[in-house]
Amino acid sequence: MGGYLLRRLLYAIPILLGVNILTFSLFFVVNTPDDMARMQLGVKRVTPEAIEQWKREREYDRPLLLNTQAEGAARLTDTIFFKHSLSLFSFDFGRSESDGRDIAHEIRKRMVPSLSVAVPVFVVGLAFYVSFALMLVFFRGTSIDTSGVVLCVAAMSISGMFYIIGGQYLVGKLWHWTPISGFGQGPDAWRFLLLPILVALVSSLGEDSRLFRSFFLEEIHKDYVRTARAKGLGESRILFHHVLRNALIPILTGAVVVIPRLFLGSLILESFFGIPGLGSYTIDAINSQDFAVVRTMVFLGSLLYIVGLILTDLSYTLVDPRVRLQ
Amino acid sequence: MSGEPLLSVDGLSTWIGAGDDVVRAVDQVSFEIRKGETFALVGESGCGKSMTALSIMRLLPDGAGIVGGGVHFGGRDLASLPEREMREVRGRRIAMIFQEPATSLNPVLPVGRQVEEVLVRHAGLRGGAARARVQELFESVGIPDAVRRLDEYPFQLSGGLRQRVMIAIALACEPDLLIADEPTTALDVTIQAQVLDLLAELQRRTGMAMLLITHDLAVVAQMSARVAVMYAGQIVESARTRRFLDKPGHPYARMLLRALPGTDARSGRLASIPGAIPDLRQTFAGCRFAPRCDRVVEACRQSTQTLGAVGDGWEVRCSRVEAATVGQGASPAMPAAPATSRSTGGRQSAAPLLDVQGLQVHFPVKRGLLRRTAAMVRAVDGVDLRLEAGTTVALVGESGCGKTTVGKSIVQLIRPTAGRVVFAGTDLCGLDEQRLARLRKGFQMVFQDPFSSLDPRMRVNEILEEGMVALCPEIGAIERSRRIDSLLERVGLGVAAKGRYPHEFSGGQRQRIAIARALAVEPKVLVCDEPTSALDVSVQAQILNLLKDIQEEMGLAYLFITHNLSVVEYLADEVAVMYLGRIVEQGTAREVLSSPVHPYTQALLAAVPRINSSASRQGRLAGDPPSPTAPPVGCHFQPRCPHATDTCRRDYPASRQVSSTHSVHCILDRPRSAG
Amino acid sequence: MNLPFQPVVLWTDGLLFLLVAVVLGFVRWSRHEEHLRAPWRKVARSRGGMIAVTVLVLYAGVALLDSLHYRRALPTDKPGAEVTYAPEVLSVLDTFARPLRDGSERTFSAPFAATAFVKETITRADGTQVRDFPRLRYGGRLLENPDVERVPDIARRALGGLAAGVLLWVTLAGLVTGYVAHRSGETFAEVSAAAWRGEHALPLRAILLTLGGACAVIVPLLVLSAHYHVLGTDKVGQDVFYLTLKSIRTGLVIGTITTLVMLPFALALGIMAGYFGGWVDDVIQYLYTTLSSIPGVLLIAASVLMMQVYMDTHADTFDSITRRADFRLMFLCVILGVTSWTGLCRLLRGETLKLRELDYVQAARAFGVSPWRIMLRHVLPNVLHLVIITTVLGFSALVLAEAVLSYVGVGVDPAMNSFGTMINAARLEMAREPIVWWSLFSAFVFMFVLVLCANLFADAVRDALDPRMREQVSPAAALRRARALAASTRSVA
Questions:
Q1: A118: confidence class by pLDDT, cuts 50, 70, 90
Q2: Using an 8 Å Cβ cutoff, are A81 and A64 in contact?
């Protein structure tokens, strides 16, 4: 187990390195640091001096990959690639290029709002979709199942943005149950969270429930279910005791991979509801072409994905007795 | 045999699907089972025997349903019982075990819990009492180390143990009737013997009745008092087992019995049943067997046949039953001494066609941080074989012994770890792909599963052409097409098959295509990997006949890999018995089969159920074969060997010549007459 | 050559027609391959699938009309002079919808309105100024007194449209029935009777009813749109119906061309990784793990930002707004393709791993057939169903993704009409009192119908092609049918 973990973590290094090289080349193959400076300073009133100063302040005044003027190790370390890309490995994210704030600090600050939406959505969603799918399977072959599937297909054909806009209009504007958008602190904070959580839950109802239903159906045709019936067990006992346990393996392990990424929040949801989380931070960074933040979020996203993969493997050993890691 | 019937099935009909595609899987089936009796329902695949069993239990798959008839059990009609009450019957009054122990247990629950569940459901036992009872059950079905096994998961148990767990589940509430649906088909022959013994003994102890569903007439002979034969959804004959085996009434039953391979059929061809089973989507006008029957008259095709009593408890669905049984008793003679095999004595020429020396195939098991090779699975560990033109060497062994790996590494689909495979004077091991390709047309392979061995996306024409295009580029398109035509004729399919896809053919026909494909490049050696084990008995006979004919015509050498000893008896000149990656005994068919020396060969032969003799209990093997990752110290067979000595536990026995053609890896000298 | 127009083939036009050619070629080819024909026949017999196909064909028709681009010749006085062409690139759809294009208003107007949505100060003929809703330039322009005449006028035209729609439907239904009769060798009367009873092998009744519904909605809408803005106008006065029709092409291009880009990667790499194993597998696995570990939106965002810089520095390459927008659209497809091949690749790798061990591949190896030929002849045809299923399933996801990307600001060019840009523009107007709902409504309806049909079609395709998907007949219903059949045959016998 320990050896397995260590090997997986070591394997993460080349992947993260690949991710860094990819983003680095995306930024600098057609773009130069001068272009970036010009863009951040505003195209109109840029003097060469201002550009130089901008680059100096942000350590962009070096060669990209190889510093021929430096000596020894500095030939490799005193470069943009080292200072801005490899430094991410030590969780040194630097400062934002648009407003100069410390990125690590921002991430810590914005993690809480992101999580306060994402975690309830994840937990309640999983429970709700599994129960809904189970209900459909329990009534399979009846009109309840058919209309449930129709509902799911229809629901998954609607863009998530319509759920948000519709939710804001109905719940917020028409019925005045919750604020339309915003984020609060203190005892009233839940009022702001209610609508985004609700909208997020409804918007993935169709797709997830249908997927889970198909997992259940796949299990229900297996031989061991027939054995269970031959024992004289009732339908609900079979469903909850035998089928659920087996179907939970793909469901849980599929869910575990996204857990680490909950930190990053949801781009669209946070942006629409004005939640100051990491999702809206990312969107702002994209819109202001803030490469430092984008780079950091890409790195974090990849890292958390790999952590998710490792957690998935670990969770297999918990839910599936057949799996042993070595 | 008297008394009230325990179960009486009356005109049962079960259909699958709907509309034009409805399959009349079970059509007006009636039979009775009395208390304590074993009744066998026998038939080939697709005849409706499993559907009958599932209909009784009302466990039919989605889309299938009982459309007529009744199932009377304990004074009630199970077919119309409300589901809630049916659940009280299942597991308590009637229990069932299935064919595939590997998939029939819930993979994520400990086996003890799965047995306990029945006790909780029907006996109201809970907690410690239930657990104690499960342990008792485990012990009574012969699961060693029962306490530890309670908390293990199905994947930790061998196939035989899993089937024992299934039996424990079935027996938990001491049912009146046990339905066993092909209970040993997925098991090896030595394990099959253990499980059949166990079932017979349990039945004696508890007095329950048993409905045994099987395709294996030998199992029927060993287990049941009465038997019914099903064909195309109907019962065509029912009788007492002894009478049935001696003198079957229905032409189908008679032909089926004669299609069984064995020593006594050795000299000639097997009686095969031409054609294939009919599609059950049609409505039949006449007798369903008429198209394949050797005694068909015009009347058979025009009117449906009814099941009529011929004698006491003997019913046959054939109006010409008298004609059919006149003359010959269909049963083959009692086992005589094996007929003299085609002489093999003088054939040990200096340079055999194929010479395998010290063949080893090891697969690494990688572990640890750097994926270092931590262990080796010695799938094949030093195999020597010689193959002469025009002869058949059978490689016999149970699943996992490495026999398929031997076959694949001879045709270089798996490159051997060590050893030599000398074909026509050239060592194939170590040749690069290009030089190997030039030799490849000399040796070809026929695979086990006729469904996965033909590409479903290719027409028969393209399938047969592939090898010629790759290996015989000198053959032009016209010659290729001519050769394909003659091959298709040769294997009995006809030229019309060319443009069709594999899925349009039955299993037996597919295996003919696979044989034609291998023959297309005119090989000298044909490795046949269980070519008939996925086929029904009647079709198996067709394929075995075909292989034998082709060998006589073309002088091919066969390496025939199989687990089926009766096929070996019928076909082989020489036999090599494999156990855990090594050949333990080797010799002419007569030597190995009638005077086996190695205790494993003896046990293997003893475990095969026979039609004509009551089973002997002696020489039954206990336990399961060990894993090739960690073979036992000393002789690999010593942990299961009844005669093992300290020497056996220390050293692997060297090869010892029993005669000039017969060698064995065993220090004991105790030949025993088989059967 | 003095054509009155000059054809223009944009990048995406070319690819779209290439795709149509590929699909048609595939259909022709698969008619001869039984194993492909059988599943498609099953698709053709599924009711939901065929309803979806009917609707999708209408969408595709609009998109293809919108993909035939040309430039108009500028009028010249001198005969024989060199013809010059207008810089504006138009599509055939634009020509059909010319009244809608030209009849734009100043700003918002509600569907079927004759007056504007907001009050303005109007100078009357007598010089006095009032604040009132001004008349529209286009909507209801023939009306003297909109307050009185508008509703009867709309009703009259709608009825006329409906009549025309029924006429069109009868014609179409006749053609379809005739074609089916021709293909199946039955008489016209037999086919139409079977269709009427809903008993034809094809779900002909469902198809004809769908066509009827479409005719009954579309034809009146078209008739009305000659005189009204049937779906209102947006902030700058453009007709929303026209914008919505233009958005269809964008959605379809993204949904299909992305697949065209993604397939070669996924197929080649997935099959190679699975078949060869070893270091090839390691490299390919590393590639797709790395790519899929990056959050998709961020990778797309980074690429699009990079491309924008490139387009800014090479502004001269793109001589018109249309070309520029088109290039960006194609680039978006490429980026989406590059980020989305990993899923299919992993799937194909797994499937190839299984196929590699199958006996027919082993048999081919025993014949010394080369690995490339085995991959082409044995592996590829046997994973094709997975490719088709994934492609069809991916379509609706891509249409939905376009909207999100446009919202984030890394989608299509703001000058290009798409559902995403429409939603994005419309959502800002939700705060108005009274609410401007029609842009959002139009985008919602058109997008919902498109994605729903794509999903239904995907379901039908998956049911037909995926061997694992057994037909889920409900036991009770099957039993009823079987019992009824048993009773009927018994009475015959």
A1: very high
A2: yes
A145: contact with B, CB 8 A cutoff: no
Residue at a domain's end among A90, A123, A158? A90
Identify whether residues A86 and A231 lie together within a single domain.
no
**What residues in C contact B457, CB-CB < 8 Å?**
33, 35, 378, 381-382
CA distance A74 to A62: 11
B297-344 per-position pLDDT tens digit: 888 888 888 888 888 888 999 887 765 454 444 444 333 334 444 444
Note the pLDDT of residue C480.
45
Question: What pLDDT does residue B264 have?
Answer: 66
Query: For residue B60, what is the nearest residue in chain C, using CA coordinates?
Result: C475
- Percent of chain A exceeding pLDDT 70 equals 98
Contacts of C289 in chain A (CB under 8 A): 15
Claim to verify: residue B536 and residue B605 sit in the same structural domain: no
Enumerate domains of chain C plus CATH numbers: 112-229 (no CATH), 240-468 (1.10.3720.10)
Please check whether residue A23 touches B, CB under 8 A: no
* pTM exceeds 0.95, yes or no: no
Q: Which residues of chain C from 375 to 414 reach within 8 Å of chain A, CB to CB?
A: 396, 400, 403-404, 407-410
Last residue of a domain, one of A90, A123, A144: A90
Q: What is the DSSP letter of C41?
A: H
Chain B residue closest to C355 (CA)? B452
Please confirm whether the linkage preceding C434 is cis (ω < 30° from 0): yes
First to last CA, chain C: 77
| No. of helices (H) and no. of strands (E), chain A | 16, 0
CB contact under 8 A, B17 and C473: yes
**Nearest residue to A133 (alpha-carbon basis) of A44, A243, A24, A50:** A243
Residue B31, both tokens: 């039979």
DSSP 3-state assignment of A295?
Answer: helix
What are the tokens at A232? 């004289």
> Six-digit token pair at B157?
């148990």
- Identify which of B100, B155, B169 has the shortest CB distance to residue A231: B169
Looking at this predicted complex, what is its ipTM? 0.88
**Phi then psi for C491, rounded to 5 degrees?**
-65, -30
Sequence-ordered list of residues with C-beta below 8 angstroms from that of C288, at least 6 positions apart, any chain: C269, C341, C342, C345, C346
Helices of type H across C118-198: 146-184, 188-197
Q: What is the pLDDT of residue B122?
A: 92
Average pLDDT on B271-300 reads 85
Token pair 């399959």 is found at: B23
Which of C59, C282, C300, C305 has the most A C-beta neighbours within 10 Å, making it the best mutation to test the interface with A? C305
Tell me the residues of chain C between 432 and 471 that have a Cβ less than 8 Å away from chain A: 435, 440, 444, 447-448, 451-452, 454-456, 459, 468, 470
Helix (H, G, I), strand (E, B) or coil at C131: strand
Question: Is residue A285 over pLDDT 50?
Answer: yes
Instruction: Give the H/E segment covering residue C7.
Output: strand C5-8
Per the structure, the count of domains in chain A is: 2
Determine, for residues C410 and A286 on separate chains, whether the beta-carbon distance falls below 8 Å. Answer: yes
Per residue in C111-129, pLDDT (tens digit) is 888 888 888 888 877 888 8
Q: Check whether residue A31 and residue A155 sit in a common domain.
A: no
Mean pLDDT on C218-247 = 90
**Domain enclosing residue A60, as ranges:** 2-90
- A27 in contact with C, Cβ within 8 Å: yes
Count how many domains chain B has: 2
The pLDDT confidence band at residue C104, using thresholds 50, 70 and 90, is confident
Q: Are residues A236 and A197 in the same domain?
A: yes
